[in-house]
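Progress note, sequence design subtask.
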């Protein structure tokens, strides 16, 4: 299938999502979703939850998703590979934690029957994925996987190439709010697990000054905790984490 031809006339991101969904349906799937993060994990190993957009997803699927997004085992598993991940490989995995099992059960309950997620590793720490899912009951997953996994891989990478070429703002590494150089510097040291006193010694400022910078950064990032601020700063590209 010539996916590049399908995306060639597209100029808007929303339209590209529509085309992505149309092509996925033509392959035999029911819905698609797309996520992107400048970095998938913080320096201390915490997963950064990607914003997800999609087409034809189960109604209300994301109502309680905030409880599980950073624990999503499908996201974690696909990040460690290059080829499409069959969700069935994960559902009964021995390594699932209790919260990850709850995440799997939640997605099952809201209507995701089967799915495959294609990871797209970009330059640096940047990471994206496309998930193609099925909600109806009249299908043979093994047949769909056997005959369409290769096309799903190609479709996902073609879509990501379109995003990189025509909607680079979707891959922005900077948030909309303005941050001072000191605020960014303090966030970077916090991401490296440095305490406020340790950061104060490193940058040659008082502990009170460091805490003030961090408090302002937390407010701008709309985060209630420093850990949350660090995670959001990484998600929007304000700071970078080591791989």
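Output:
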């Amino acid at each position: 299938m010539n996916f590049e031809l399908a995306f060639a006339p597209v100029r808007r991101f929303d339209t590209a999502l529509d085309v992505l969904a149309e092509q996925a349906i033509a392959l035999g799937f029911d819905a698609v979703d797309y996520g992107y993060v400048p970095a998938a994990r913080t320096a201390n190993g915490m997963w950064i939850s990607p914003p997800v957009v999609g087409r034809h997803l189960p109604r209300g699927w994301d109502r309680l998703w905030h409880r599980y997004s950073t624990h999503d085992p499908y996201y974690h598993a696909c990040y460690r590979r290059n080829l499409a991940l069959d969700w069935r490989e994960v559902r009964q995995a021995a390594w699932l934690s209790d919260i990850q099992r709850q995440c799997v059960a939640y997605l099952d309950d809201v209507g995701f029957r089967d799915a495959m997620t294609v990871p797209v590793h970009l330059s640096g720490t940047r990471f994206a994925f496309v998930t193609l899912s099925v909600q109806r009951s009249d299908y043979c997953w093994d047949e769909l996987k056997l005959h369409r996994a290769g096309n799903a891989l190609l479709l996902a990478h073609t879509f990501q190439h379109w995003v990189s070429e025509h909607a680079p703002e979707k891959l922005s590494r900077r948030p909309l709010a303005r941050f001072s150089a000191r605020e960014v510097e303090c966030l970077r040291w916090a991401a490296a697990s440095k305490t406020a006193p340790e950061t104060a010694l490193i940058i040659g400022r008082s502990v009170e000054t460091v805490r003030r910078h961090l408090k302002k950064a937390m407010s701008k990032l709309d985060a209630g905790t420093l850990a949350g601020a660090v995670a959001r700063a990484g998600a929007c590209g304000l700071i970078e984490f080591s791989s």
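The radius of gyration is 20 Å. Work on this subtask will continue into the next period as scheduled.
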